[in-house]
Amino acid sequence: MSLDLRLSLPVAGAWLVTVLVIGVPAWALTVAIALWLASALLIAGALMSQRRLLASLALGCVLAALCSTSVTVHAESRQPAALATLAAKHTTVTATATTTSALQRDADFFQATITLLKVDGETFELESPALIFTERGGFGAVAADPTEEQDSDLAAGGEDEPWGIGVTFAVTGTLASTAPGDGRAVLLFATDEPEWQADPGWQFDWANELRRTFSAATSQLPGGGGELLGGLAIGDTSAVSDDLDDAMKTSSLSHLTAVSGANCAIVVGLIMALGGRVGATRALRIGLSILVLIAFVVVVTPDPSVLRAALMATFVLIALGSGRPIRGMAVLSLATIALLAFDPWLSRNFAFVLSVFATAGLLLFAEPLAQLLGRWIPRWLSLVIAVPLAAQLACQPVLLLLQPSLPTYGVLANVLAAPAAPIATVVGLAACVALSVLPVLGLGLMWIAWLPAAWVAAVADFFADAPWARIPWWEGWVGVLTLSVLTILLLAALVTKGIWQTHALTSLAIASTLALAVVVGSAVSAAMTWPKEWQFAQCDVGQGDAVVMRSGEEVTLIDTGAEPDLLEACLDRLAIDRIDLLVLTHFDHDHVGGTEAVVGRADVVLVGPTGSPTDEALLDNLAAGGAQVVAVNAGNRGQLGELQWRVLWPPAQVAGIDPGNDASVVIEFQPRSDCLRHCLSSVFLGDLGESAQSRLVAGHTFRQVDVVKVSHHGSGDQYPALYSALRATLGLIGVGADNGYGHPTDSALAMLEDAGTAVARSDLNGLVLVSPASRSGAVSVWSEKDVGARH
User: Fold this and answer.
1) Domain span at 498
2) What distance lies between CA 571 and its chain's CA centroid?
3) 547 and 490 in a common domain
4) Residue 372 domain-assigned?
5) 580 lies in the same domain as 560
6) So what's the pLDDT on residue 527?
7) Are residue 89 and residue 71 in the same domain, yes or no?
8) Cβ atoms of 485 and 508 closer than 8 Å
9) pLDDT score, position 157
């Protein structure tokens, strides 16, 4: 492929416009009209002046206008005004939807397209991509069609088999808004299990059966290879454990966890090569490649990176068929703008962005880097190193938005692991097909594919456990821009010569020294300012709650977040070994998912009402670890160090209150009269909703408290009178960055400001430590990131 950048810059400009327009879809029509008018003027100017710059600007304007028009066309069906209103009010609805991702057993959420909404006798037709959250940690197995005997998509695998893609179902739940520009138009929190309505069409049925059969077979394979093979071959990551997933991310191998765009190139290349060996004509090979490519996309599901690669492969095949030269960047640009015009919301999709950036990095930098490295090492080795290095350099600034650290061994891990991935993919795909027609052959191929998959997992585990596997870096756009500048300077130093190379090396040395000084200085400053007498520690566990509180020599933990590893890391940093009192406010995954980290370390566990066997199993696990599990309700009291605690909610009579948010344990801590240190008062609200909060206020007289754990991550489902009654000095909000729920909401933040409550939130502040201040009624706040922390 030759290098041609004439289309790349106009596409980049159109992409940037699309990113902005999807954030304000109400302006999309106005922007589109303005861009079409500007396009007409620029086209006229380009034709009259014959200037390439005007032609390039005209093309960029046309592409941006096309994407803006697409936003206008799709916005009304994706998120009509009625849907936005219902979501803003957290309305309970019955939705008819079609699955766009396979349901995994005990998954917390899955993707679907909502086509019909029923609420209060009204019906709304729409086409809204949605994220549907399962009731209390997973639907588990979903019931098959009750009217048929074992011939539905689900029942084909038995009644314990989760649904595949393309199943139409109805589900009742509460709507919630998404952030502007989010790829999902709405969130739906299910309050019951979905009801089957229709099987998928033939175009999905065969693919679901292949996936089911292969998943069942690979589940018998041992170790990390068994966990990874489903993802490498057909994009099924359901078997990947949290530990292996973390290891893949830490070692910069997460792109190998599931099918990526590279797999499309492998499939097409294999078909073209085999067709050539048997003497097939070029036209036949191209046609067969396109058909196999379509089937491959259906089987592995249309992930953004797969769509990008499939479209690129199609354009390359068309170019081959027509005898036209193939220009890599032109093909990438054409595929990118085609997908953005089809679905403008891909412009903010991390998977899509990383896929395009990685491909651009390979096309632009791999060969220059290989030539440079070839001065000292053999050509084959220089290519092996240059390919992952080019992709890493292109993607790392974006990856910082997902994980604010740099992989120390990322390139080396990819050099060792990446060659094994195509083998696992090709042989795994062959096994997937063979299992359905010749099981003995399929099993043999599966075990062969397991070997390279196991190697990839072993490489990930090795480098994830190596010392200094990740280097801390700034979060947010400051970190992105800083690393982008360093990357540009590095590439300039590598590919330029003479005086320009000298300037680039000098600038790189200065910038790197300054960046290193700031990173090291920040770490030293954090260590020096760490408060010794902290009473509260809000752990940064992503979208979830986990707050540690000390009183004297005793420790309590309120909720455990969603991930054991994140909680474990926080407790280690705080030097917490034992938990005297563990409070699980309710059993949503983002409040109890990390409980495994404290099994065997907790003495007493306070819980509210359970609602499923999964909840009971979690408590049994704690009890087996030596904990005393106590079910509590309003009125229960106890002592922790120099503090007294009292349960305010749920009431003893819980009629009309289902297990979940509104059954959250609300607990108050007040200092004893003889308290000498760690004497701040507090209230923890779990995920209590507005109606339950109003009942809580009606039944209690509150004293002013120093700290309140804000309910439900700062959602809009709040009762302002409760916060006015508490008059807390500081509000803690456990929330994940870019969480997609819009948490914390503007209304919740405004409510806290009206109540005189300052805010510390884990997405902006990271780990937050709260200590008593020298003057009464004040608190001292230390935050890891020191962004918006209040004192």
Assistant:
1) 479-529
2) 24
3) no
4) no
5) yes
6) 61
7) no
8) no
9) 39
Judged by phi (left if over 0) then psi (alpha if -120 to 50, else beta), residue 686 lies in left
Are 564 and 704 in a shared domain?
A: yes
**Is 788 contained in some domain?**
no
DSSP bridge pairs for 2:
327
Mean pLDDT by 10 residues, the chain (791 residues): 75 94 90 93 86 88 95 88 82 89 69 90 88 62 40 40 81 83 85 83 84 89 91 84 85 82 79 84 86 87 86 88 80 94 93 91 88 85 88 88 84 90 89 91 94 95 89 77 81 72 70 66 62 90 93 93 90 92 92 92 93 87 93 92 92 73 93 82 93 90 92 91 93 84 86 93 91 76 67 40
Dist CA 783 CA 445 (whole Å): 53
Angle at 108 between CA 217 and CA 264, to 5 degrees: 50
Whole-number Å distance between alpha carbons of 414 and 396: 14
Q: Name the residue type at position 361.
A: G
- Same domain membership, residue 13 and residue 86: no
Count the domains in the chain. Answer: 5
Each residue of 731-758: b (16+ CB within 10 Å) or e?
A: bbbbbbbebebbbbbebbbebbeebebb
Domain CATH code at residue 103: 2.40.50
Strand partners for 110: 132
In a domain, 692, yes or no: yes
Rounded-to-integer distance, Cα 53 and Cα 417, Å? 44
| CA proximity to 184, closest of 109, 282, 246 | 109
Q: Which one-letter amino acid corresponds to residue 25?
A: P
CA distances from 370 to 355, 392, 496 (A): 21, 14, 14
- 154, 164, 337, 425, 713 from 104: Cα distances, Å: 12, 9, 32, 22, 26
Q: Which amino acid makes up residue 497?
A: K
Residue 180 resides in a domain: yes
Residues 487 and 560 in one domain: no
Phi and psi of 467, rounded to 5°? Answer: -65, 145
- Rounded to the nearest 10°, the torsion over CA 118, 119, 121, 124 is -50
Instruction: Check whether residue 574 and residue 691 sit in a common domain.
Output: yes
| 616 CB neighbour count, 10 Å cutoff | 12
